[in-house]
Design brief:
NADH Oxidase; globular; binds flavin mononucleotide
Length: about 160
Amino acid sequence: MYDEILALRAIRQFSDEPISDEDRLRLLEALRWTGSSKNRQAWSWIVVTDPDQRQRLIGCGDFMTPVERAPMAIVLVQEESGYEFDTGRLAQNLMLAADAIGLATCPVTLHRESMAADVLGLPEGVRARYAVAVGHPTVGSEPGRMGGRKPLETLTHEDRYGG
Ligand SMILES: Cc1cc2nc3c(=O)[nH]c(=O)nc-3n(C[C@H](O)[C@H](O)[C@H](O)COP(=O)(O)O)c2cc1C
């Protein structure tokens, strides 16, 4: 598990193979069991596989190549009393679960949130700013060029900021 956490990368290229019903259920269960503030579970998700709906979703973000190429996108929905932090936890659980069953993922941002609300039919006060593209990795599914991380010593403070 530890090695998988360190090795998890955003993948933007997928084969044409659809996600099986069994894998779909496993992904959705991983979402369902994510922890949330006060266990409110003030969230839901929209599984997008319809090609026309996918096209409309692609129009909602600026860097949507992963969704263009993936057989499935899961839009993470923040219900009215939900927190963005919890949405982040959902995304990470989904990505790690997908990796564990041999699938690849890439999170994407829906920069045009009001357009996304329209496309997805969200009620007033309900938000969807992030989605995760899901597919089977294929040849050429190398991580993007933006990989790598800052050195640990530049990220870690002791007791106080700057310490
Ligand atoms: C909140 C968030 C939004 C992201 N949005 C996009 C996106 O719109 N399009 C995209 O191709 N990648 C997106 N990514 C993926 C990041 O670019 C990627 O995680 C980062 O470059 C580090 O690469 P790695 O995850 O492969 O290590 C997003 C990642 C996060 C956490």
